[in-house]
């Protein structure tokens, strides 16, 4: 496990708990989506210690947790953002609707990674297969490594989940998953790799579409 990954997930529970969403005053669809985001946040907090090796790895808990995240991503997430739902207590930015294609791509990317994590849970913290050594420009799984993915590994978990202050310099994913080797799939990855990818998607989404605390 890389030092960057350990740093990205260190003290996850305390970092996320300290930056919990303020639901006071929220109602209707805004409250629903806050509750959805909180469910994903709490799941990430539960899984983070396993991913950094701080507690024993449990494939069942990882699979169940990943399924929870997947259940709040994709079209389920998009349904919680009807156009113009900015009234009351919300951190949603109007850019969600003006850049709906990008927002949708990130929501789907989160679902794909989470579903892969649920399937990959038996792999543990090691990839299912080793890739050939001559795959230049790829990581050990045969998947292309983007600069954004590497940068995201250095974030704190609070930042990765979007509950810490972000800046305009935060890396933004394009919501694209590049599969370069037909022999390998996302479910062949180590679970900590997939967890980091999920975190990076969260970071990218919040960097664009979540307003800071007022």
Task: Write a brief caption for the model.
The protein has 10 helices and no strands.
Give a verbal description of the structure:
36% of the residues are buried. α3 (28-51) packs antiparallel against α4, α4 packs antiparallel against α7 and α7 runs antiparallel to α10. This protein is mainly α. The chain has helices at 3-9, 12-18, 28-51, 59-71, 74-78, 95-98, 100-120, 147-152, 157-160, 191-209. The radius of gyration is 17 Å and the shape is elongated. The chain has 10 helices and no strands.
Features:
214 residues; mainly alpha
Query: Fraction of residues in helices?
Result: 40-55%
Structural class by sheet pairing and helices: mainly alpha
Give the N-to-C terminal Cα separation: 37 Å
- The fraction of residues assigned to DSSP E strands is under 5%
Total helices: the number is: 10
Shape: elongated
Q: Low-confidence stretches at least 5 residues in length (pLDDT < 50)?
A: 10-23, 132-157, 165-174
Task: Provide the residue-averaged pLDDT.
Answer: 75
- The SSE order reads HHHHHHHHHH
Indicate the multimeric state. Answer: single chain
Q: What's the β-strand tally?
A: 0
Radius of gyration: 17 Å
The largest sheet, given as strand count, sense and whether it forms a barrel, is:
none
